[in-house]
Input
Amino acid sequence: MLNQFNGFNKVAGISLISLLSVSATSILMTSDQQNFAIAQENPGCFIVDHAERVINLDGLCIPQSKAELEPPAIIKGIALTNITILWDKSEYPMIIGTITNKTNQAIQVSQITLQFEDKSTGDVITTETLDVEAYLAPNQRREFRETVSKDSDLGGRRERAIKMPPVFVEWT
Output
């Protein structure tokens, strides 16, 4: 069946692999026998090409970001979830996420501090303090969107090179 995709092996492989369940290991061999793709739950989804280079396909194969699947980081009653980094048309990335009041009383949150680490080395890239300015009733949540400061550009790294979710350090 893959022979009909002559010349489109890489595209067909990526499209088909994104439809596979990531809960079990699956292997897809293209018709040219030079590229194959593997989808597996851990450590992710990737292609190994004919030069044995590993190409990360997590963004195509995993329907939700890993940050959404992990339990929330909770500090002093504030839960932090759904953290993503968005590079829009601006030269500085935007950090998007949700804070939730897990206490039985109203809380005012002015800022949250996040520590970003390099995914491969674990080294701290930067610590960002974001202005969220939220007054939250018990169990109320609020999405925030903040541009990373000019003084820090996450070390020039894109989200795929940054450990997600970031470490939730504190809130004030």
